[in-house]
Amino acid sequence: MRAASWRLCLAIVCWCSFAIPAGAQPQKLPEDPEDEKRIGLWFDQGISVNLPSNRSLEFEFHQRSDKGASNLFEYFGQGGVAFRPRRWLTVIPIYTVRPQTSYEDRLLLNATFSTTRGRWRLNLRTLTEARFPENLRASARVRFRPGIDYTLPFRMRRPPVLMVNNEFLMVPGPNSFESGGAFTQNRSQAGVLIPITASFSIRTYCMLQFVNLPGGWDTNGIAGISIAIKTAR
């Protein structure tokens, strides 16, 4: 009887020694669906509708292709209301829906600070994101994008504007997707804005995207075209 009890205890200990490590293993997270692969091509369309009291409706549509612009891997739309309480401050609460293979809802708060000095315009865009991917835990991400714009000294009614910025993306808490650390991405961008009319402009840009993966940093090149339309209500 005593031998049988010892065998039972030994069996329970052995079972626990195998079961506990197996249960403690962290679940492997999927890759962030917005991560580029090789050379990418981005298309962006923005529509701004003026409202009274320094407000406007803002709508944006985005299409992302990678693998040499041959694979449409992401597309999404978003909308919000822009408030301009000061000349140097714009605040936009935004809702984003991403209906691609990995469905995701996002709530964002955009706060942009800017100041103009002659032909120079300094700006800082901050984004706070709440991400709700389907069948995954929610997460929060913060993004800081300082930038400089310079209006070229051309004798034109609407001269082109050079634009340079660098964006830092960080996840301070648990991440919905795999990553090599809290500092998840860095995006360096340079481009030129061409105002066609007072209500229509085109911006072309090049970007280097640095993604912090568990195996190390991955770098991808991106070319982009943005179209902006402003309308009266």
Fold blueprint:
Elements: H1 2-24, E1 40-51, E2 55-66, E3 71-86, E4 89-98, E5 104-117, E6 120-133, E7 139-151, E8 161-170, E9 183-195, E10 200-213, E11 216-231
Parallel strand pairs: 1-11
Antiparallel strand pairs: 1-2, 2-3, 3-4, 4-5, 5-6, 6-7, 7-8, 8-9, 9-10, 10-11
User: Radius of gyration, Cα only, in angstroms?
Assistant: 24 Å
Instruction: State the order of secondary-structure elements, H for helix, E for strand.
Output: HEEEEEEEEEEE
The CATH topology corresponds to Porin
In terms of structural class, how would the helical and strand content be classed? mainly beta
Number of domains: 1
Work out the number of β strands: 11
Largest sheet: 11 strands, mixed, barrel
Low-confidence stretches: 1-6, 8-25
CATH class: Mainly Beta
* Beta fraction: over 45%
Summarize this, please?
By secondary structure, the chain is mostly beta strands. It has one domain: monomeric porin ompg (Porin), CATH 2.40.160.
